[in-house]
Design a protein that fits this description.
With 143 residues, the chain is mostly helical. The chain folds into two domains: 71 residues, no CATH class; 49 residues, no CATH class. Helices cover 43% and strands 10% of the residues. It is built from seven helices and five strands. The strands form two sheets. The protein has a three-stranded antiparallel sheet with strand order 3-4-5. Strands 1-2 form a two-stranded parallel ribbon. β4 and β5 form a beta hairpin. The radius of gyration is 17 Å and the shape is globular.
Length: 143
């Protein structure tokens, strides 16, 4: 229901668990055990929620949803946290030496990039490409 929002929260560096295959009861239990706040568009879930943390996302447009979450938690965007988490599994990324991942990235990327990060969870490799500039631009113009 909120997959794009979850991805953008990870882009912003927020610890964001997301699994669209689990049922409401499991969401509630996971939030309770992990101390998480549930974000949902399901009004019934907010009424059933037996925890302190549940935020009903009322907006439909992605960047309005982001604004809604940031206002609710009282945070502003911290550029130092930007792209610090794996977009797939949510783990914190770790810097990795270019020589260690040389064979795992395209030759052109290895030639043109000097800083790389790797996810300790799923082993995905990240580098600063044009997408980083696109993200900055979208955040600057939309938030």
């Amino acid at each position: 229901m909120l997959g794009s929002l979850a991805r953008w929260l990870r882009i912003l560096g927020y610890d964001t668990a997301y699994d669209n295959r689990i049922e409401d009861d499991e969401i509630i239990e996971r939030c309770r055990l992990e101390g998480r706040v549930a974000l949902t568009r399901d009004r019934r879930l907010t009424q059933r929620f037996r925890l302190r943390g549940c935020l009903l996302i009322e907006r439909e447009e992605l960047f309005e949803q982001l604004r809604e979450v940031l206002e609710a938690i009282g945070h502003e965007i911290d550029l130092n946290r930007l792209l610090s988490r794996c977009l797939e599994c949510n783990s914190l990324l770790e810097s990795v030496d270019k020589a260690r991942i040389r064979r795992q990235v395209p030759a052109y990327v290895c030639k043109t990039q000097s800083h790389f990060k790797r996810c300790p969870g799923c082993q995905r490799i990240y580098w600063g490409g044009t997408h980083r500039l696109n993200i900055y631009q979208r955040l600057k113009t939309r938030l």
